Amino acid sequence: xxxxxxxxxxxxxxxxxxxxxxxxxxxxxxxxxxxxxxxxxxxxxxxxxxxxxxxxxxxxxxxxxxxxxxxxxxxxxxxxxxxxxxxxxxxxxxxxxxxxxxxxxxxxxxxxxxxxxxxxxxxxxxxxxxxxxxxxxxxxxxxxxxxxxxxxxxxxxxxxxxxxxxxxxxxxxxxxxxxxxxxxxxxxxxxxxxxxxxxxxxxxxxxxxxxxxx
Length: 214
Fold this sequence. Notes:
The termini are far apart. 28% of the residues are buried. Helix 2 (32-42) crosses helix 7 and helix 5 (97-106) packs antiparallel against helix 6. It is built from 9 helices and 8 strands. The strands form 3 sheets. A 4-stranded antiparallel beta sheet has the order 4-5-7-6, with helices on both faces. The protein has a two-stranded parallel ribbon with strand order 1-3. The chain has a two-stranded antiparallel sheet with strand order 2-8. It has a single domain (2-11, 18-207), classed as NADH Oxidase. It has helices at 11-17, 32-42, 62-68, 77-80, 97-106, 112-126, 131-155, 168-174, 204-207, and strands at 2-3, 23-24, 29-30, 54-59, 83-90, 159-163, 181-190, 192-194. By secondary structure, the protein is an alpha+beta fold.
């Protein structure tokens, strides 16, 4: 079964109704084109200096998902969902600065001179940044794109669950992922056969400080 459902929903409905779903219809398929569309919309998320230091591996082949299953601690959504998307942080993402800012010049959003200065500054700072700071920035950006991906999926009528419970080292080994990339999370996406259960949230008064920590 393959479909191309696009259920555009009210934004507040999307954020209130999104749940982490762990039970999916294994017969339901999302087309490769729609998965590309979802990723394209997800990458409208912000990132530091617009460097977009993320990469994705889409697992939608049944045999490959079976290979992924033990790496993800045998979580059944890996094989039941339409696809699983591995979000990877690119530690050398700043090397894309020239390409990214060249497109901004082409679009008329900045001049060639401004582009050259920005790229020089970015390369000068990030190429000398310590590995922990660079990694932390990449992880933040990948968190932003991951959340946007899940909201985009919900707006289109699909369900998701983010998974941190997997073996990053085994993932890298099994799929020949170089040390340039940091596995951040896996995201299962598909059609739920069982709704995600409601969860509570701490009161804002318990987690918010004004103008400093009291």
